[in-house]
């Protein structure tokens, strides 16, 4: 197999298939959940929210793959963008509770009354409007990614150093969000949500619609990501990943290219976080934990880095494994995850997508080396 | 004052940790000229290229290209002004195809948003076809560059330089690791390129420099030791001393 053939994995057909599969699966499961309980095909609320969680994680994985797989930025802090998107949506969901909270205050969430705050902090302005929340869901992670990326890439921080500061970023945010005084509910986070857009979050129909919407937005993100990496800009990212200084001498500014994909990726992660919160029903500072970001890198590695589809596949399969594994042998999951990561690195460097390509093509001999050998000696 | 010079380096010095890599070096190049730079290891040839392309900032001295001061600009800005650089070790984008490599090099869009929206135009296709023909890589157009031989990578990189349509080409040891036949073919290619562009070639291989048949500048310890035709500088006793040792 030619180690340089990175073209095939981002094939448009594969991505379209994956997008369709995601929508069909989410739609099918959503429909199944609406069947009467006695029906053998009935999907329980638990399964529906689990599927919604997996698909939200798949968006985080897609975001990680965009920057790691294509621009070579090994992010160990992407869950920060995911969690920020989650908090932006959580603020709106908190306001939707209205006077139904324990303290019955129509405008202040319970935790603020508990802190004896008299009014909403300024950054909660507009949080009662869904549209504003939808803007914040992508704008806040995008803005943070923009500022962070501008500083880091401009200073030519890369490689391990960049990985470490992404980790520090998410850790710092976790500590900040644990503070009650920050105004996001401290270590309890935001929870006890009731409605979204007036629809009961616990009603089967609402849950079914949320799952379908998550599937659709994941598919849309997948196609958008494919547009980016399939464009000339995608080629530029790969060029920056493999020979950054060379691109400068061609007149490109690699820091700008990295910044653009980094912000785009942060927005996708934020969107995933928002969808996660609607279906899981809670967002707390634990979502900023460095381990979450590292797990998302493992999903991408397992699925196949730089393939987009692999990120989605890896996120869903590893989390499915986690659900099953933690039910059987809860204390061994972390070992299982470690073995999976080491095993993938050693035996499946291109992840499941690499394995799939290998099995499907199984080329007896590649054509390239022969052609190459006819002229000149190898370096 | 120096209006008709393409490149004008004057009294340039640069020091790395107390080591004077370039020592009041002056070099002038007329438009359309091709110049070979020779000199023993450590003479400052690569550092000189680094200064022209913005990779290294000189401590003192001026570097002007078409009258513009280069010492304040960074690598991308200098590349966009029309100076192309070919490195000693061929650096092509191995995961991309030959065509994709050439497409990225083509003079034109450079800002990330414009690159994101760019579609391959008929004009670009034509330019790529010409470059594929020039570098004799037509058969490899859709192959990943990483699978090519060393010589083919050298040629692809030269093709990418041509794609940039620079006014000045800096070429660092283009024939290192090439066969004799490839070396002579490369000399032909550079002469062909020189019909439309100015070229500075750094090279150790004297047969290659002879095949180019151009003016030679000998560098030694960061400054110019001799300048002239290859025969004239080879006969210079100071050059002989530097090359053969004392």
UniProtKB/TrEMBL annotation, chain A:
Pfam families: BPD_transp_2 (PF02653). The gene is urtC. Keywords: Cell membrane, Membrane, Transmembrane, Transmembrane helix. GO terms for molecular function: branched-chain amino acid transmembrane transporter activity. The chain crosses the membrane at residues 12-35, 55-85, 97-117, 129-153, 160-178, 208-229, 259-277, 297-320, 332-356. The keyword Cell membrane applies. The keyword Hydrolase does not apply. It comes from the Bacteria. This is Urea ABC transporter permease subunit UrtC. It is found in: Cell membrane. It is a multi-pass membrane protein. One of its GO terms (cellular component) is plasma membrane. InterPro entries: ABC_transp_permease, ABC_transptr_urea_perm_UrtC, LivM-like.
TrEMBL record, chain B:
InterPro entries: ABC_AA/LPS_Transport, ABC_transporter-like_ATP-bd, ABC_transptr_urea_ATP-bd_UrtD, BCA_ABC_TP_C, P-loop_NTPase. Signal peptide: none annotated. It comes from the Bacteria. Residues 7-246 form the ABC transporter domain. GO terms for molecular function: ATP binding; ATP hydrolysis activity. SUPFAM superfamilies: P-loop containing nucleoside triphosphate hydrolases (SSF52540). Keywords: ATP-binding, Nucleotide-binding, Transport. The keyword ATP-binding applies. Pfam families: ABC_tran, BCA_ABC_TP_C. GO terms for cellular component: plasma membrane. This is Urea ABC transporter ATP-binding protein UrtD. It comes from Komagataeibacter nataicola. The gene is urtD.
């Amino acid at each position: 197999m030619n180690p340089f053939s990175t073209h095939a994995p981002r094939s448009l057909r594969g991505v379209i298939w994956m997008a369709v599969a995601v929508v069909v699966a989410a739609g099918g499961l959503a429909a199944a959940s609406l069947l009467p309980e006695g029906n053998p095909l009935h999907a329980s609320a638990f399964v529906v929210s689990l599927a919604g969680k997996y698909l939200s994680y798949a968006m985080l994985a897609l975001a990680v793959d965009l920057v790691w797989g294509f621009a070579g930025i090994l992010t160990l802090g992407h869950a920060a963008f995911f969690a920020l998107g989650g908090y932006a949506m959580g603020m709106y969901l908190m306001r939707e509770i209205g006077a139904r909270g324990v303290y019955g205050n129509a405008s202040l969430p319970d935790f603020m009354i508990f802190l004896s705050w008299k009014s909403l902090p300024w950054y909660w302005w507009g949080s009662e409007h869904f549209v504003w929340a939808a803007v914040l869901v992508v704008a806040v992670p995008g803005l943070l990614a923009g500022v962070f990326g501008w500083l880091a890439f401009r200073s030519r921080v890369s490689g391990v150093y960049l990985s470490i500061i992404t980790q520090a970023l998410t850790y710092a945010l976790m500590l900040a969000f644990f503070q009650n005084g920050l105004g996001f509910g401290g270590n309890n986070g935001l929870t006890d949500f009731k409605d979204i857009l007036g629809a009961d979050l616990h009603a089967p129909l609402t849950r079914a619609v949320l799952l379908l919407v998550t599937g659709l937005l994941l598919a849309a993100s997948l196609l958008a990501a494919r547009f980016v990496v399939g464009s000339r800009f995608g080629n530029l990212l790969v060029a920056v990943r493999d020979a950054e200084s060379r691109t400068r001498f061609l007149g490109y500014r690699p820091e700008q290219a990295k910044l653009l994909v980094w912000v785009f990726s942060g927005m996708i992660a934020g969107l995933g976080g928002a969808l996660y919160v609607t279906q899981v029903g809670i967002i707390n500072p634990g979502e900023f934990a460095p381990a979450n970001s590292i797990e998302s890198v493992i999903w991408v590695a397992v699925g196949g880095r730089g393939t987009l589809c692999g990120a989605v596949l890896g996120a869903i399969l590893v989390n499915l494994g986690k659900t099953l594994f933690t039910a059987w042998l809860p204390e061994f999951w972390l070992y299982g995850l470690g073995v999976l990561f080491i095993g993938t690195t050693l035996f499946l460097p291109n992840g499941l997508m690499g394995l799939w390509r290998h099995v499907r093509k199984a080329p007896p001999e590649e054509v390239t080396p022969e052609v190459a050998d006819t002229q000149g000696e190898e370096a | 004052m120096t209006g008709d010079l393409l490149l004008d380096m004057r009294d340039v010095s640069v020091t790395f940790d107390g080591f004077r890599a370039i020592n009041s070096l002056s070099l002038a190049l007329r438009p359309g000229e091709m110049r070979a730079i020779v000199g023993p290891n450590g003479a400052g040839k690569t550092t000189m290229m680094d200064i022209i392309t913005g990779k290294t900032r000189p401590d003192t001295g001026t570097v002007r290209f078409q009258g513009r001061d280069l010492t304040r600009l960074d690598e991308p800005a200098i590349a966009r002004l029309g100076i192309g650089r070919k490195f000693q070790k061929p650096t092509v984008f191995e995961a991309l195809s030959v065509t994709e490599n050439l497409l990225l090099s083509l003079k034109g869009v450079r800002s990330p948003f414009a690159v994101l929206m760019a579609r391959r135009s008929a004009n670009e296709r034509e330019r790529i076809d010409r470059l594929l023909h020039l570098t004799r890589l037509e058969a490899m157009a859709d192959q990943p560059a990483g699978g090519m031989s060393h010589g083919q990578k050298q040629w692809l990189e030269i093709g990418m330089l041509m794609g940039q349509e620079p006014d000045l080409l800096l070429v660092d040891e283009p024939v290192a690791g090439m066969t004799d036949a490839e070396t002579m073919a490369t000399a032909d290619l550079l002469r062909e390129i020189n019909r439309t562009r100015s070229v500075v070639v750094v090279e150790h291989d004297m047969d290659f420099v002879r095949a180019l048949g151009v003016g030679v500048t000998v560098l030694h310890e960061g400054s110019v030791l001799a300048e002239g035709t290859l025969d004239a500088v080879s006969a210079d006793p100071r050059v002989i001393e530097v090359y053969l040792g004392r």
